[in-house]
Fold this protein.
Amino acid sequence: MSRASRLLTLLQMLRGKSRPVTAATLAAELEVSERTLYRDIAELTALGAPIYGEAGIGYVLRSGLFLPPLMLNPDETEAVVLGLRYVDQRGDEELSKAAADAMAKIAAVLAPAAQDALRNPTLLAGPAGYGFPDNLVSLNVFRQAIRHQAKLLIDYADVNQVPSQRLVWPLALGFLNEARVIITWCELRGDYRTFRTDRVAAALELDETYPGRRSDWLRGWRKRMQSEEAKRFTPDKK
């Protein structure tokens, strides 16, 4: 195993550990000496990896952005760039800025071999389309409520401009080609509902969280969508 490959493997091993792991254990898994392991840890730390260790306890990789120069090959670079450009085209002002900032951070740590894929990509995002309807409520209001897992009181008008007030549990924002939607659990309907953000006249985040975990509710929504999609393409046997 080359040194670069070993460093990558060591980093992935640490990412997969939720508790500190000793140098002896890491060295045994990599089939290297503890002295070599210490040098590898020192090199990853010098590159910016948030690795913390304590004698007799072991090493742990704490959360935080870390992209050493050897992390992305040209194909991976183009995939990331394509995704960020798609976000820049279809996201709101905050997301577009976040995409630009992420691009700059990635560019700063790319290996020379991958820099050309960044400057001259072979994959291009399609046209941005006809634009999105203006939102009366900033998408950041929805994002914050989703992150806080807070209930959201919205004033909504359907396609026929019929108004209603809904108490919803915000789960995720969806970015479609010609509209943005918020995926929710609606207390009024007692079921999953999707609302176009441009039809939300007002939104108030309440000081009340909804029960359970957002990930579980979102998983339930995905299952519902998959079930409805399967029904749509299942031939009628009658």
Remarks:
- The radius of gyration is 23 Å.
- The longest strand covers residues 163-175.
- The domain at 3-61 is CATH 1.10.10.10 (Arc Repressor Mutant, subunit A).
- Residues 88 and 97 are 8 Å apart (CA to CA).
